[in-house]
Amino acid sequence: TVAYDFIKQGPDAVWKNGTVTLDWGDPGEDSLGVAAEASNRILDNGKTYSRLLATFPERITDGVIRGVYPLYTVKSGDHFRAILGLKDGCEVGKVRFIFLGKTGDTELVRSEWIEACDGRVTMVDIDLSSLVGQSVQFVLIVKTEGSPNQDYAYWVSPRIER
Predict the structure, then answer these.
(1) Which class for 133: exposed (0-12), middle (13-18), buried (19 or more C-beta within 10 A)?
(2) SS3 call for 11
(3) Are strands 72-73 and 135-144 parallel, antiparallel or unpaired?
(4) d(CA 13, CA 129)
């Protein structure tokens, strides 16, 4: 059962690059960064995925995009699940995906994954049982690793399942 859908809640998150707050949706010109729903995209592993969260970092060296979601109260059995990947056809892209759970300024959970143009995606399953009963703000972050070439990063169906 999907308890929280990060794509559906995307418009309610606060999206920023390193300095500027960004609007939800595809701006057409993506140099400042993009946070938007996408569908039917082919990722680096050659497979097509129907529901994705596009998070393209600002197109500068070590650029970033960060989405801070509204509070969510974690329940027993909750897991954060997603598939992480880059756009098909990339050759040099490399990003760091970061998942945070926090209350106030305290990080309660933090996981990171490097994704590169290597023909693979990363399957994510994080058990949130240590947070049961807590109201948490989840944060999705993507950072470029160096230059911003082909860093078209996608979270496939990011969600909390119970």
Answers:
(1) exposed
(2) helix
(3) antiparallel
(4) 23
| Whether the Cβ atoms of residue 126 and residue 138 lie closer than 8 Å to each other | no
Alpha carbon distance 73, 134 (integer Å): 5
pTM of the model as a whole: 0.95
The pLDDT tens digits for 67-89 are: 999 999 999 999 999 999 999 99
Q: Which residue has the tokens 């129907």?
A: 50
* Cβ 69 vs Cβ 139: under 8 Å: yes
**Tokens matching residue 55:** 């998070």
Give yes or no for a contact between 80 and 128, defined as CB atoms under 8 angstroms apart: yes
Whether the CB-CB separation of 148 and 59 falls below 8 Å is answered with yes
